[in-house]
Amino acid sequence: MNDVRYLCESTLDVDAPPLRAAEEVLAIAARSAARRDRVVAASVGLAGVTVVAALVTPALLPGPVTSLPAPAAPATSAVVSAAAPVPSASAPATHDRLVYDLLVAALPAGYTGRSRYPFAVWSREPIRLDQAAPAGPLYIQLTATVVVSDGRGEGQLWAALVSDGNPAPTGDLCALPDVGRDCRVVDVAGVPVRVGVEDDGQGGDVLVARRYLQGGYLTVVAQRGVPAYSAGTDLPPDAVGGRQRQPGGKPALAAAFLSLEQVAALAGNPAMLP
Amino acid sequence: MMMRILRRGDRRAHDEEFVAYYAARAGHLRNTAFLLCGDWHLAEDLTQTAFTKLYRAWTRIDRHDVLDQYARRVLLRAFLDEHRRPWRRERAVGPHDDVLDGVAPEHRGTEDRQVLKTALLRIPKGRRAVLVLRFWADLSVEQVAEVLGCTTGTVKSQTARGLDNLRDVLGDTLDELKPTIPGGQP
């Protein structure tokens, strides 16, 4: 037994690299907790409504379809064909760097972006979110969050890849839950992307695009402000001094920095998937 | 959900307690991770994983005297889960593999340490975890069983087999190496 201890102590008798700073560890942990809250707020949506129930809901009112000018194939219908090949909702967490780059590249001139949180370490596991029964858990495969600035105010653009184990839905995507208002389906080069608008609670709009995948979905969200994490009414990890604030203390952007079609184009961009 | 039950004063206290706990225990936890995986970078990641999960559960842990045990459990499970991933599977080392052979005389201490570390890594990971927790972290059989989520009988049998493995790997090497390592107690 003492030999084992000796072996261990000898193994450790080296110059170890410096320990990660406590602030960095706290930031990563807070980011992880915040992601969990954010996706619950933005993706789970209505309590008690299950994804399984949604998938079997018959289409009632097919939404209008908008085609993107340049790359989009002709839009034919809001109803998604069951025969269309759909990628799976799976990605390593470290794909967040590429997604982040794509989000930043999509910003119009005059806007700059920076990552709100540290990027994922390669060993990060998907974050599990439990839903109300009988729906199964959701797993956040990756997220990337860009704080968007025009020099005066700050908004946010973020993307998340969520897996729920459900097959890609067919039929009218606007008949599914969590559609927000003004739901419609945008055809992005043959990829149907559902878009809608939600309220940010402060008089602004949140533009939400969702691309359904096999076993989950990719969602891209643009908003004029930087949200504090308030799935309930509590302060986020970013709250300092006991009050909510925007990172940097700047006000929200004066106007939307992307259109719904541009947000949809991001969600439908095949490069967003690994 | 954790965020919903926190109040604004709790958040600050929560983070301060978390940072203080990290400052006090992260080094030990990372050492445990290093003994398990043999790689400082992976040990750092495993430690981060453990503290991330600890942060999420912080408000649900009523008795902070069990934090160490909780953190060890998270770390161990992260380690075992990590090695279930196909791309992380450990490579079998043959009896004449260079990993174990070729000790350079001019760097005897360093190389000897490498031999010891490699010997530990050649033990199956479950048994390695039992040995590290029992004999380095000084946990009881019951505590190890709780951390690993198994029975005390399993811990005892894994301990015996792990020690057998270690003897098979090292033979008399450990006794021969003890005096050559600076600071080593023969």
What do you see in this structure?
- The complex is a heterodimer of chains A (274) and B (186).
- Chain A is 21% helix and 26% strand.
- Chain A is built from five helices and eleven strands, in the order H-H-H-E-E-H-E-E-E-E-E-E-E-E-E-H.
- Chain A has helices at 2-12, 22-44, 51-55, 96-105, 260-268, and strands spanning 65-67, 79-80, 112-115, 127-129, 138-149, 154-163, 171-172, 181-188, 191-199, 205-213, 216-223.
- In chain A, strands 1, 3, 4, 5, 6, 8, 9, 10 and 11 form a nine-stranded mixed sheet that branches. A two-stranded antiparallel ribbon of chain A has the order 2-7.
- In chain A, strand 8 and strand 9 (191-199) form a beta hairpin.
- The termini of chain A are far apart.
- In chain B, 68% of the residues lie in helices and 0% in strands.
- Chain B has helices at residues 2-5, 8-37, 40-57, 67-82, 108-121, 125-136, 141-148, 152-170, 173-177.
- The longest helix of chain B has 30 residues, at 8-37.
- Chain B is globular and about 55 Å long.
- The model of chain B is unreliable at 1-8, 84-108 and 178-186 (pLDDT under 50).
- The interface between A and B is large, with 47 and 59 residues.
Give the secondary structure arrangement, pairings included:
The complex is a heterodimer of chains A (274) and B (186).
Chain A: H1 2-12, H2 22-44, H3 51-55, E1 65-67, E2 79-80, H4 96-105, E3 112-115, E4 127-129, E5 138-149, E6 154-163, E7 171-172, E8 181-188, E9 191-199, E10 205-213, E11 216-223, H5 260-268
Parallel strand pairs in A: 1-8
Antiparallel strand pairs in A: 2-7, 3-5, 4-5, 5-6, 6-11, 8-9, 9-10, 10-11
Chain B: H1 2-5, H2 8-37, H3 40-57, H4 67-82, H5 108-121, H6 125-136, H7 141-148, H8 152-170, H9 173-177
Helix pairs in contact in B: 2-3, 2-4, 3-4, 4-7, 6-8, 7-8
